[in-house]
Amino acid sequence: MSEFEFECEIDLTEWEAITQKVLPFCADDERFGSGSLVLRSSDSTRTWWSTDGRVVAKLEVGSAERDFLWTVSPRLLAAWPLAAGGTGSAKICVTDRESSNLISIRGAGGSFTLPWRELRYPGLATLVEEYDQVEGATAVVEAEGFYYFAKLIKTAPGGPFLDEDRTIPPCRLSVGDGSITAEVDWEELGANCHSLNAETTGESTVYCSPVWLYSVIEALEPGEVTVLLPFESSDGVERPIRLQQGALTVYLHAAGFEIPLEHWQVNTVEPVLAECFGSDVLVVDESGDYELSEYGAPVYARVLQGDPTRLCIFATVVEGIEQTPELLAEINDLNKG
Predict the structure, then answer these.
(1) What are phi and psi of 252, to 5 degrees?
(2) Residue 163 — φ and ψ, nearest 5°?
(3) For the chain, domain boundaries
(4) CATH 1.20.1440.230 fits 134-159+166-252, yes or no
(5) 35-58 b/e with 16+ CB inside 10 Å = b?
(6) Whether CATH 3.10.150.10 fits 4-123
(7) What's the whole-model pTM score?
(8) What does the pLDDT look like over 166-225, one tens digit per residue?
(9) Rounded Cα gap, residues 10 and 53, in angstroms
(10) Which tens digits make up the pLDDT trace of 152-174?
């Protein structure tokens, strides 16, 4: 019987893809969940995730026989060359959590081991499901041309624009009429307008950070990339720009919008859950929920951010029931108490 609760082999191709396409978008502070990557399997598909609040990256890397979700330190991936020892392969291993609770990367060249911690992590899978339902205008461009396009957008003119206290203004990014266009207003020098020919559908305009856009495009490989600019929403909330190239999907938030990572930094809910239900419930699933029950109907807890922060306890009691006005009225009466 293996001493490890979990093992996953990472070959050179996968490691290079993670390092180039996912790792750059981890948050800076590894003490919290957003400072790690997520290795997840759901519906037999294995994926790597990361976010720094401004960008969400998702990379599909293959199949898996069972579902799992692990947070992985960037330092563990940095040790892959040491562990592989020139063989082109190393394994991520997690020991039984009831014993030593360690995560390591191991191979012919050696190993690197860290304590594994059950960290809260943003429910990116649920968030991305919402993002993927957003409609918008699309542009198909060559990644190389898009790279130079983005580099021009973020390059400040000479003069006071290079001072540390001067920020690069947001760019007005548009899709339509056979091109993707960016306009940046440098105040005293006026607006620069850059246009890249593309295969387009629809028309849309969003505002984004030139620096963030450039960082995303740096993660792309040569070849075609599809860019989706969301249509204007009725609720005033800006949906992210979506870039897709093969197995990689990156979501770039509009200027002024970020995932509020502070909600995952200081956790005031978990001590209460541990006191009431025990420490075993402090494992967050891919939707960001805590499962509170071991038997019978699954009961979940979900943190609802706001002022004040609230904790919602819910369960699915029955499924497959036809929705009728009478049923909804009965449920409303129950909710009113």
Answers:
(1) -110, 120
(2) -65, 150
(3) 4-123, 134-159+166-252, 261-336
(4) no
(5) bbbbbbbeeeebbbbbbbbbbbbb
(6) yes
(7) 0.76
(8) 778 899 999 999 999 999 988 778 888 999 999 999 999 999 999 999 999 999 999 999
(9) 26
(10) 988 877 777 666 667 788 999 99
